[in-house]
Amino acid sequence: MRAVVVNSFGGPEAVQVVETDVPAPGAGQVRIKVAAASLNQVDEGVRGGFFGGEGERIGLGWDVAGTVDAVGDGGGAGAGAGAWSVGDEVVALAPGFVRPLGAHAEYVVVAADATAKAPVTVDAVHAATLPLNGLTAVQALDLLELAAGQSLLVTGAAGAVGGYAVQLATQRGVLVTALARAGDEELVRGLGAAQFTSGSVQDASFDAVLDAAILGETTLAWVRDGGTYVGFRPGGQPASVRGVRTTAVEVAADGTRLAELVGLVDAGALTLRVAETFPLAEAAKAHARLAEGGVRGRLVLVP
Questions:
Q1: Alpha-carbon distance 98 to 107, whole Å?
Q2: Per-residue pLDDT tens digits for 153-177
Q3: How far apart, in Å, are the Cα atoms of 235 and each of 46, 145, 231, 239?
Q4: CA 6, CA 59: separation in Å to the nearest integer?
Q5: Residue 80, pLDDT score
Q6: How many CB atoms are located within 10 Å of the residue 233 CB?
Q7: By C-alpha distance, which of 159, 212, 164 is closest to 184?
Q8: 177: which strand partners?
Q9: Nearest alpha carbon to residue 224 among 242, 237, 211, 238
Q10: What angle do CA 159, 103, 82 make, to 5 degrees?
Q11: Predicted TM-score of the model (pTM)
């Protein structure tokens, strides 16, 4: 099968498509024939060596939508989030920084309990944009522990994680202010943001900040005393000031939670955004596009 890997760290030019053996599912795993797999910033980090693995072949890709084509022992009936059988259409998160194969391949092996039935209202390309960013957003909101009526500033609100966070927080009754570029106001208001800003933020005016843009310490001035900050670099969150609780989300594969997000997609309550698709053979081109910035939605690889 074909798979996207890096054998040495670098820019988009380091991305290679190689021929390799089809992986076999082990205990508690399923193998998915990949229909679509989205490209994320974490793949840039892996490609550039941010997570280590010098001298190893490293597979890329965390998000997958496709069809179960093999089930390992314990990966079928009663396995975590579902009872998986060959032919089931699914989405899954395949996390891992330094491993020989990822989801950017023709087949990928994932934990059965990291898998959920695919949405029925969208195609596989759109479905592939959900697992990583959707789970990151909902798990970040869980860390905030906000009640209905409290206020939240989402930085990077037009991005993939930020956009999901705006929608999910709004559905919880949280009053969301979106921080994004001026040209993105219509987009984020359409996702449910009650207020919008592209620049100035009133100091200490929010119960919490969800820092999808990774602005860091600057944002603490925008949180009230005793409020909460959630970032997206585990261990890299700013130190607490004025009693502000600071933490960071470290996304975890969770098929049950992913199934809940799928339900929101099928109910029309969660928007999946695809910016552009690329054939698997043009993975390096997709990385180059991501590196240019300004992408709204996800870039998706199609085998």
A1: 18
A2: 999 999 999 999 999 999 999 999 9
A3: 18, 20, 9, 10
A4: 7
A5: 46
A6: 12
A7: 159
A8: 153, 195
A9: 242
A10: 95
A11: 0.95
Tokens standing for 106?
């023709």
Domains, the chain, ordered by start:
2-130+272-302 (3.90.180.10), 133-248 (3.40.50.720)
Residue 81: pLDDT over 50: no
Contact 118, 262 (CB under 8 A): yes
Give which of 143, 132, 134 is closest to 231, Cα–Cα.
Answer: 143
3-state SS, 128-143, equals CCCHHHHHHHHHHHHH
42, 57 contact by CB (below 8 A): no
Backbone angles phi, psi at 215, to 5 degrees: -80, -20
Here the tokens at position 131 are: 């697992």
Alpha helices in 121-266 (DSSP H): 124-127, 131-144, 160-171, 185-190, 255-266
- 8 Å CB contact between 94 and 38: no
Estimate the share of the chain in helix, then strand, then coil, as percent rounded to the nearest 5: 30, 30, 40
Q: For residue 202, give every residue at least 6 positions away whose Cβ sits within 8 Å of its Cβ, in sequence order, or none.
A: 222
List, in sequence order, the alpha helices (H) in 172-282.
185-190, 255-266
Q: Specify the residue for token string 């997609």.
A: 265
The helix/strand/coil state of 152 is: strand
Sheet of strand 2-6, all strands in order from the earlier edge strand to the far edge? 15-19, 2-6, 58-59
The pLDDT tens digits for 195-233 are: 999 988 988 999 999 999 999 999 999 999 999 999 999
Measured CA to CA, the distance from residue 121 to residue 171 in angstroms comes to: 20
